[in-house]
Amino acid sequence: MAWFSKNRATIDASEKKTIGRGVFRRCESCGATLKAEEFTENLEVCPECNHHYPMSAESWVELLLDPGSFEEHDIGLVSGDPLAFNDSKPYPDRVRATRKKTGVDDAMMVGSGTVEGRGVQIGAFVFRFMGGSMGSVVGEKIARMFERAAERKQPAILLSSSGGARMQEGVLSLMQMAKTVSALGRVREAGMPFVSVLLHPTTGGVAASFALLGDVNIAEPRALIGFAGPRVIENTIRQKLPEGFQRSEFLLDHGMIDVIAQRREMRATIARVLGHLVG
């Protein structure tokens, strides 16, 4: 009897540790514990407090474009190793391992599609690939996306979510800032609009280049948007920053972005913007 009771207690303890794993999720913002499927069905937004969790690039493309209209371009591009960079492992090994882990080639996905029947060129950062950092492949894909938009006379939509330039590629990574902005100029010359969607976080060289150059800049609620982080700025200027500094609401109040859109409203907002700008 003692043996049975002891094992029963062990089983109960184990069950308590594992029960509900993957079934429930606790919101880090409001503390509410809800069924995981409630987050999924609500596009990774907390139904209780409206906290927007990250959503994959693939899910964004599915959300924004007409069903079945997406055609991916520039697949298979791989970064070189111009600096022979080596931290805990050589850069090429890190890239190969990240490609295997994430199932994507790099931190950017681009392609063609339609929004309510209107042809567009679209790109989305893949944040799970090295924090969405911008190296030569990311810059090349964005530049090609802008060039296709200009050639086909279609609007360009880019969803940014990035920690900034990729340090492993040094100055070649920083060079993508100028390269992408130059390609964006061709979209402007063709008379086509660029809709920039800023997700959490949009920082570093991405924020300092094309991300805030949209004809319309749209952000999600509470997204962190800026060049350097708040702590770096405070340590540099030795001043306390205002409440909510670098969040999308602060940027809207100070004229840096044009609109904040809830995730469920993003497709309709972009479609409405394109309707006004393209006709």
TrEMBL record:
Keyword Cell membrane on entry: no
EC numbers: 2.1.3.15
Metal-binding recorded as keyword: yes
Binding site for Zn(2+): C27, C30, C46, C49
GO biological process: fatty acid biosynthetic process; malonyl-CoA biosynthetic process
InterPro entries per the UniProt record, alphabetical: AcCoA_carboxyl_beta, Acetyl_CoA_COase_Trfase_b_su, ClpP/crotonase-like_dom_sf, COA_CT_N, Znf-ACC
EC category name: transferase
Keywords tagged on the record: ATP-binding, Cytoplasm, Fatty acid biosynthesis, Fatty acid metabolism, Lipid biosynthesis, Lipid metabolism, Metal-binding, Nucleotide-binding, Transferase, Zinc, Zinc-finger
Pathway(s) of this molecule: Lipid metabolism; malonyl-CoA biosynthesis; malonyl-CoA from acetyl-CoA: step 1/1
Cross-referenced Pfam families: Carboxyl_trans, Zn_ribbon_ACC
Residues in CoA carboxyltransferase N-terminal domain copies: 23-279
Zinc finger (C4-type): 27-49
Catalytic reaction equation(s): N(6)-carboxybiotinyl-L-lysyl-[protein] + acetyl-CoA = N(6)-biotinyl-L-lysyl-[protein] + malonyl-CoA
Primary location class: cytoplasm
Localization, UniProt: Cytoplasm
Gene Ontology molecular function terms on file: acetyl-CoA carboxylase activity; ATP binding; carboxyl- or carbamoyltransferase activity; zinc ion binding
Obligatory cofactor(s): Zn(2+)
Details of cofactor binding: Binds 1 zinc ion per subunit.
A cellular-component GO term for this protein: acetyl-CoA carboxylase complex
Role played: Component of the acetyl coenzyme A carboxylase (ACC) complex. Biotin carboxylase (BC) catalyzes the carboxylation of biotin on its carrier protein (BCCP) and then the CO(2) group is transferred by the transcarboxylase to acetyl-CoA to form malonyl-CoA.
PANTHER family in the record: ACETYL-COENZYME A CARBOXYLASE CARBOXYL TRANSFERASE SUBUNIT BETA, CHLOROPLASTIC
Family: Belongs to the AccD/PCCB family.
Subunit organization: Acetyl-CoA carboxylase is a heterohexamer composed of biotin carboxyl carrier protein (AccB), biotin carboxylase (AccC) and two subunits each of ACCase subunit alpha (AccA) and ACCase subunit beta (AccD).
NCBIfam families noted in UniProt: accD (TIGR00515)
Name recorded for this polypeptide: Acetyl-coenzyme A carboxylase carboxyl transferase subunit beta
Gene: accD
